Amino acid sequence: MSDTRRRVKVYTLNEDRQWDDRGTGHVSSTFVEQVKGISLLVRAESDGSLLLESKISPNTAYQKQQDTLIVWSEADNYDLALSFQEKAGCDEIWEKICQVQGKDPALDITQDPIDESEEERFEEIPETSHLVELPPCELSRLEEIADLVTSVLSSPIRREKLALALMSEGYIKKLLGLFRVCEDLDNREGLHHLYEIVRGVLFLNKAALFEVMFSDDCIMDVVGCLEYDPALVQPKRHREFLTKTAKFKEVIPITDSELRQKIHQTYRVQYIQDIILPTPSVFEENFLSTLTSFIFFNKVEIVSMLQEDEKFLTEVFAQLTDEGTDDSKRRELVNFVKEFCAFSQTLQPQNRDAFFKTLANLGILPALEIVMGMDDLQVRAAATDIFSYLVEFSPSMVREFVMQEPQQTDDDVLLINVVIKQMICDSDPELGGAVQLMGLLRTLIDPENMLASTNKTEKTEFLSFFYKYCMHVLTAPLLANTAHDKNSKDLQEGSTKINPVCPDNFQTAQLLALILELLTFCVEHHTYHIKTYIMNKDLLRRVLVLMNSKHTFLALCALRFMRRIIGLKDEYYNRYIIKGNLFEPVINALLDNGTRYNLLNSAIIELFEFIKVEDIKSLIAHIVDNFYKALESIEYVQTFKGLKGRYEQEKDRQSQRLNRYRRDARSLDKDEELWFNDDEDDDDGETVEKRMEDDFSDSYGKYMEAKKGAANGSNGANNNGKAAVIPPSSPAVTPNNSSTSSVKTVALPATPVVKTALVGLVDYPDDEDEEEEDEEEEQSPRKRPRLSS
């Protein structure tokens, strides 16, 4: 048998009853030795690989649909379809299939699908006719026809035979002719029977019948029949809606008559499925699967035809960005692009990729930048939907575009800043649009979906761009609503007890909660950039002002932001919190909450429980030194007593460590003090180690005597080893400001920020905190000499 090659797409039906595109290739029918029979072979047009090899089985039911589709099932749940580019190719392959099975190519189905139960049932019934015998198409026989159509729906084989009978006699058009007669005579009984007949014919689920029923000269009569549901007192007016209310708008005239007809047909069939037909029951859900497929393939065809018409799409985008276009016209253009993108969701991934690349080449992103900044709410909403399609499809494409913008435009009109401003200015009381935009921003700044290219620059470049050009726009409402009241006389510098413009407005509180959610995400995923921003802007102090808000959800958002920072266990952050005394607003909120057992209470206690369990020494010392008196009365949880216990254990451990090396204290002479301050310029590690061993005894004794003297001079009450209290009013200091430490502090090895009078210089293997202290040494901004090579 000679090969007949035709261009086709191969589809398989997935579990969700949606068609998956398996690729494009050329089909042939040829004898395959391994299976000893004629098979359909599809080879990919890209690389010649085999996309499909399917033996034409004598018992397989093949269906021809819409002149260019052949559909069949190879297993119980494995449906296949070949979509041909040309009708001629479909006809040739269909003839080959019918030839192998010994069937008439004029039929649209080669077998009657019979399950086992059907076979058993029909063995007892003598075969009377190949087709179901239909009553004459007359007014007086409508009830009989309706009963026949309704009765066959439960039997697959009788459904097939009825479909063949309806097709062979041109019965559908005769029935629709009777509908017009009944409507002219106002024959309600006949109209009710026609409703049952047309609904039953739709449930036969046959593409060949759909082709007739949904043709231009029949579809409105089909809709008319479906208006006369016997369960309704008055008929619905679906035709009036489709012809008068629903208007087909051509933003740019469509010259292709086939495309126009396909758009009209798809809209009307979708209306029948979604509006007119009742929601199918569990037992009927597969009755309309072919109708779903009919709509699906129509949408694919519409998108493909529009995409190929470059002149049409170029004109759309030209008018969309033209300043002279009036508002109503621009609204229609944006809605068209939105609908176009929605249709594209029916495309398979590789086709969708080509679709969005076409839009990108036509300038979709610059166009969105213009329309998203307009005052028209409808235009902005549609533009947001289009933007969401683009971000979901390819965040990298959007990022690449926005990073090129600063060279050409001002900060205010950058696309991401336009998006942020639209989020901030959302007029919806529930902030529906702002929530959607926040999700899109989150996707754009998520390092997880940034391409890991060979040079790995996308993450670094985009985050640098975002924090330089966009972050100040995002945080502006937060900073504005947590500003200090400079007229208040009782404020101390650096105090967190400020009189803020605390947002009592619910909508503002919701907006700040969204911004905080995004910033919390940044803390988790943008370690370096967000850390620098928080330190420079003293952002955590401003956020904690919101702990005073009357809206508990906002206070919880502020607390969550701090909890995420502490969860990183980063000593830079810990020093920043200690220097700024930033636990004060949290503890005030806990005390103000009183004995109420609510989410705020639990969340604050969980924060301190985390610090205790993770044994973050610097924070434990700060909390116990400054706030334990206020917290010791809280006994319904053991968290704060546990913190005190951790603090005492650490103090005892430090004392025990020091006792191993206690010597007669002597004052430090200048040479030894210089040794303690010596920089790491000497690269000879062995010399440094030997020098340390020789001089250790003398220098340490002098150091301890000087340390005791300094401690007695500055605060006699602290010479028993208690931690020094940090004054509450310490201003927030970034790590760069911590370089003013004394000589003695620089000389100390890396230890937690626990202010004790006696600190050991050497760690022994039995010290439990050796690993933690090593980590803190790496994180410390201070420059300390290594004591061993």
From TrEMBL:
Residues 711-744, 761-789 are annotated as: Disordered. Residues 644-671 form a coiled coil. InterPro entries: ARM-like (IPR011989), ARM-type_fold (IPR016024), EVH1_PP4R3 (IPR055236), P4R3-like_central_dom (IPR006887), PH-like_dom_sf (IPR011993), PP4R3-like (IPR051137). One of its GO terms (cellular component) is protein phosphatase 4 complex. GO terms for molecular function: protein phosphatase activator activity. It holds the Pfam family EVH1_PP4R3. SUPFAM superfamilies: ARM repeat (SSF48371), PH domain-like (SSF50729). One of its GO terms (biological process) is DNA damage response. Residues 711-724 have a biased composition (Low complexity). Residues 764-778 have a biased composition (Acidic residues). Residues 731-744 have a biased composition (Polar residues). Residues 144-649 form the Serine/threonine-protein phosphatase 4 regulatory subunit 3-like central domain. Residues 5-101 form the PP4R3 EVH1-like domain. Keywords: Coiled coil. Regulatory subunit of serine/threonine-protein phosphatase 4. Belongs to the SMEK family. This is Serine/threonine-protein phosphatase 4 regulatory subunit 3.
